[in-house]
Amino acid sequence: MKKILGTTIVLLGAAALSATAATVQIDLSGYDSGSDVNSSFQAYRGDPSAMANHLNEWLANSSGWCGSKANTSSETSSYFKSAVGNEDGSVTVTYTNRQGYGGSGVGLKVSLDAAGYSADAFSSLTFTVDLATSTGGTYRVYLAYQTENGWQAVESQATSGTITVTADLSGNKLTSENVYVFVESNQGRGNDSIFTASMTGELASVPEPATASLGLLGLAALMVRRRRS
């Protein structure tokens, strides 16, 4: 009987170690405002690390979407137009896809803490942009984040359709609650571009009660009662 009981308890411990990962949505629907804040980002295209540091300098103290032209000219046209939150947690943004001035773009600081999650709980983050209305040129999408190795970014580009970027955090956890997303374009036709943005995260595996462990718990209790009797 002692052997059976010991085996049961070992199995119970193994079952209790079962774990699962969960995909969660980071709600962007509340980011429904913005303004123009010049950043002159053209020099950082093609260098994700430099772009990540630039986005941190540009957006760290911002609230809402920030629109900007790409170069350092004194031109003062409007870039950010509107942002509307959606019931599914995404946000639809309109900005002017500038034909000149090196292009234009809109960036946003996203607070993971405000979304209800601890930054170091994520094993990955994914930012998706659906270009509902594009007006020519090349669109680039960035997701910038900080780990113990400093600020870094992932980027992808397309001329239309859906653009997705994913940060793999499985071996290097986030060290800042803030991440930055940036959508920019150049060689466009000067008209308004519209995109819908969404973000998801993969939470690192966490222990959870397994169905098998509940059965084993009952069996262990039965073995204890029989032993005592």
UniProtKB/TrEMBL annotation:
Signal peptide: 1-21
Record has Signal as a keyword: yes
Pfam families: PEP-CTERM
Ice-binding protein C-terminal domain sequence ranges: 205-228
Keywords: Signal
Natural source organism: Akkermansia massiliensis
Keyword Signal listed: yes
Protein name: Ice-binding protein C-terminal domain-containing protein
